[in-house]
Design goal:
By secondary structure, the chain is mainly β. Helix content is 8%, strand content 43%. It has one domain (6-114): Roll (2,3-Dihydroxybiphenyl 1,2-Dioxygenase, domain 1), CATH 3.10.180. It has an eight-stranded mixed sheet with strand order 2-3-4-1-5-8-7-6. The longest helix is centred in the middle third of the chain and has 5 residues, at 69-73.
């Protein structure tokens, strides 16, 4: 793994509402703020009509902050193309050769999760 990758969080799927969750319209998913979780867990609760399918919707993921998504992703298989879930944050989801889901995050601001 590239040394510029910084661990961010682990994403876990749930069907139960969690305190403090916010709605991400682009993927129709409710997420919690992993910065506020003592173990950096992000809970994801998908709406039935979410366009997200496959491993991103069904498996946990591990997320890393990277300087630039496209460069960091290399030859990883794209599951969700880069998009902006929150102002100043670009993310994309990928599948590793052994089947793990990885989220790469590109920050434009240090205060994204403290707004």
């Amino acid at each position: 793994m590239d040394p510029t990758w910084q661990f961010s969080h682990v994403g876990m799927i749930t069907t139960e509402p969690k305190p403090g969750e916010v709605f991400i319209e682009a993927t129709r998913v409710w997420i919690t703020n992993f910065v506020d979780h003592p173990f950096h867990v992000e809970w994801l609760r998908f709406e039935p009509d979410s366009p997200v399918t496959g491993p991103v919707r069904n498996q946990p993921h591990v997320a890393y902050r990277v300087p630039q998504i496209e460069q960091a992703a290399g030859s990883l298989k794209v599951l969700l193309e880069p998009f902006e879930p929150l102002p100043g944050l670009r993310v994309a989801f990928f599948l590793t050769p052994d089947g793990a889901v990885v989220e790469l995050m590109e920050y434009q601001s240090e205060d994204i999760f403290r707004q």
